[in-house]
Amino acid sequence: MTEARLAVIGHPIAHSLSPRLHTAALSAAAKPGSYVAFDVRPDSLGDAVRGMAALGFLGANVTIPHKEAVRLYCDRLDGGAAAVGAVNTLKFTETGIQGYNTDVGGFLAALGSGIPGWSPAGRAALILGAGGAARAVAFALQGAGAGRIGIANRTADRAAALVAAVGGDPNLRPEDADLLVNCTSVGMGSEESPFADWERLRPGAVVCDLVYRPAETALLAAARARGHRTVGGLGMLAHQAALTWRIWFDEDPPLAAFLAAAHG
């Protein structure tokens, strides 16, 4: 059996748990292979992607800040990645570099398992951020039938563009939201929080943070202290990784191994 060479690229990348998850999955499936993390600066992204293709890598995950820019180096995008405008998974084939997005399915799976029985259908969601992860979450919520989608971002033009892309509501306020999702990197390895208007957030709103290091971010801790139900980033990490496995190997993923490694 050919050894599968896999990687994750981002900048920074030291925080990534993806090597732990995929190494555990390879072991659980008794599949020969390796999974490494590469810190790739934005100005070296093209060289890195082409280099992995030349070196015989099977695939790679893509994280902050490359999810949108990496599209330029893909020969083909699947329908989800093309619609979202962001790629988090690459597959290197004899016919070229293929780009996919598993963040959409991973987010919905994590939300469903994190709060069983809760659905975004017909509800209002406020997303913090407008980058690649935010785009995936916005399109996931749109596909799940969310009633209203708002975007809060430091760059107003990017927020407006994403609102327009998903038919969202540019006037959505925290007091309107049934769901608050942090799609920024704020809080990663720090005590910072991307949200402070707790008095305005609707009572009973669900709070989700895609940041998974630390597992209990300042955002989640503050939300729980105020009685909000919360969903952390580890679930999405595991579920999107499992969907990535299906793309690379065309077989059912060892989901239990991904979940155990994420929460271990």
Describe what is shown at a glance:
By secondary structure, the chain is an alpha/beta fold. Helix content is 36%, strand content 19%. The strands form two sheets. Strands 2-1-3-5-6-4 form a six-stranded mixed β-sheet. Strands 8-7-9-10-11 form a five-stranded parallel β-sheet, with helices on both faces.
Q: List SSEs in N-to-C order.
A: EHEHEEHEEHEHEHEEHEHH
How many structural domains in the coordinates? 2
Helix content: 25-40%
The CATH class of the largest domain turns out to be Alpha Beta
What class would the helix/strand composition place it in? alpha/beta
Tally of strands: 11
What would you say the CATH architecture of the largest domain is? 3-Layer(aba) Sandwich
So how many helices?
A: 9
Mean pLDDT: 97
Written description of the protein model:
This protein has 264 residues and is of the alpha/beta class. It has 2 domains: 126 residues, Leucine Dehydrogenase, chain A, domain 1 (Rossmann fold); 110 residues, NAD(P)-binding Rossmann-like Domain (Rossmann fold, 3-Layer(aba) Sandwich). Helices cover 36% and strands 19% of the residues. It is built from 9 helices and 11 strands. β10, α7 and β11 form a beta-alpha-beta unit. α4 packs across α8.
Features:
alpha/beta, Rossmann fold, 2 domains, about 260 residues, globular, 9 helices, six-stranded mixed sheet, five-stranded parallel sheet
What is this structure's SSE topology?
Blueprint: E1 4-10, H1 18-28, E2 33-39, H2 45-54, E3 59-62, E4 76-77, H3 79-84, E5 89-93, E6 96-100, H4 103-114, E7 124-128, H5 132-143, E8 148-152, H6 156-165, E9 179-182, E10 206-209, H7 218-225, E11 230-231, H8 233-249, H9 255-263
Parallel strand pairs: 1-2, 1-3, 4-6, 7-8, 7-9, 9-10, 10-11
Antiparallel strand pairs: 3-5, 5-6
